[in-house]
């Protein structure tokens, strides 16, 4: 049976620790040796099988007729290696050897290989093959940590991607956790050549229902087959503003059996125009304002008064007063 430890694929500067266990070392003196760096022995322990006593008060009630045992067996550390020289393992103990791999800073596409050798007094040596792979590493800088957009619009986040060491890969960005009303549109994998630097722009769709305000958006980066998975820092901040509305055009609505047609022109936040109804030939001069989504329209004599709010560019639900009679209505762009 071959013995081996595989430490996985690590970026330059990364490290991983693994443990080799040998059950046949009890009663022998063990002298370890390792081919390194980048492999090193960080500790050896002998483990004894000991009897532990159960405290019934710490256990749930047993099933009828099946009482809990009063004792159980467990492996506990018995002795610890000093860090150099031979290590005497007590009779019946097991041996564990802790091995650390630290990837060098320059990377190696061919990976790393080494051998752990345990010289056992009075027995054959035990050898353990050690292996680790090298992968590249990306560094992503948030170029525009503060971005903005309006309801129903888009926002763009600029990132600088640097491949620090050899190794081609693809990188994907994920919005996690989700922010209700915000959709990451740029979900395709982005190819990054080893040693290259590139700028990318992530596009976000902002729903009309998204409340105005500032949001933290956590972006997770996944590269090298998800072996590198990190949240971008600093966390980007998204400021969402109210969609600029323009009421210029022809609008129609009805309330209490009266149809109203308004022809309006917006200049800045001020509105002017005319209103006609199906109950008379009069053309009524109108004025008013648009403030964000809020709309107020009225004539100089308050014969026609409308107050409402845009839900989208073509729909304004609200209330209308016609000659003193108020009712709910919705204005629709024609």
Structure in words:
The chain is mostly beta strands and 334 residues long. The chain folds into three domains: 4-134, Immunoglobulins (Immunoglobulin-like); 138-241, Immunoglobulins (Immunoglobulin-like, Sandwich); 249-333, Calycin beta-barrel core domain (Lipocalin, Beta Barrel), CATH 2.40.128. It contains no helices and 28 strands. The strands form six sheets. It has an eight-stranded antiparallel beta barrel. It has a five-stranded mixed β-sheet with strand order 1-9-8-3-6, with no helix packed on it. It is elongated. 23% of the residues are buried. The model has no long low-confidence stretch (mean pLDDT 91).
Give a brief outline of the structure.
With 334 residues, the protein is an all-beta fold. The chain has strands at 4-10, 15-22, 29-34, 39-53, 71-80, 87-88, 94-102, 112-120, 126-134, 138-142, 146-150, 154-163, 169-175, 182-184, 190-192, 197-206, 213-216, 219-223, 228-231, 237-241, 249-255, 258-267, 270-277, 280-291, 294-298, 304-309, 315-322, 325-333.
């Amino acid at each position: 049976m071959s013995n081996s430890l595989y430490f996985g694929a690590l970026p330059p500067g990364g490290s991983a620790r693994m443990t080799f266990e040998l059950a046949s070392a009890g009663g022998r003196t063990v002298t370890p040796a390792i081919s390194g760096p980048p492999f090193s022995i960080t500790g050896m322990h002998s483990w004894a099988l000991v009897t532990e006593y159960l405290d019934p008060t710490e256990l749930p009630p047993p099933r009828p007729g099946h009482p809990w045992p009063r004792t159980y067996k467990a492996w506990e550390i018995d002795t610890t290696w000093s860090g150099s020289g031979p290590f005497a393992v007590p009779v019946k103990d097991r041996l564990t050897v802790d091995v650390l791999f630290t990837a060098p800073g320059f990377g190696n596409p061919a990976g790393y290989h080494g051998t752990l050798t345990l010289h056992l007094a009075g027995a054959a040596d035990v050898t353990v093959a050690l292996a680790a792979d090298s992968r590249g590493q990306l560094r992503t800088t948030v170029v525009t940590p503060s971005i903005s957009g309006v309801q129903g619009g888009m926002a763009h986040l600029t990132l600088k991607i640097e491949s620090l060491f050899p190794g081609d890969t693809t990188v994907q960005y994920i919005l996690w956790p989700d922010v209700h009303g915000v959709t990451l549109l740029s979900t395709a994998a982005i190819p990054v050549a080893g040693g290259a630097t590139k700028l990318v722009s992530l596009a976000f769709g902002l729903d009309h229902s998204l409340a105005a305000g500032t949001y933290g958006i956590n972006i997770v980066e996944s590269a090298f087959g998800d072996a590198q998975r990190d949240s971008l820092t600093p966390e980007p901040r998204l400021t969402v503003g109210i969609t600029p509305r323009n009421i210029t055009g022809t609008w129609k609505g009805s309330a209490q059996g009266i149809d109203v047609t308004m022809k309006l022109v917006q200049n800045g936040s001020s509105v002017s125009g005319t209103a006609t109804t199906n109950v008379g030939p009069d053309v009524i001069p109108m004025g008013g304002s648009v403030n964000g989504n809020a709309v107020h329209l009225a004539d100089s004599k308050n014969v026609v008064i409308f107050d409402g709010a845009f839900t989208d560019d073509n729909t304004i639900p609200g209330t209308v007063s016609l000659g003193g009679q108020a009712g709910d209505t919705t204005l629709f762009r024609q």
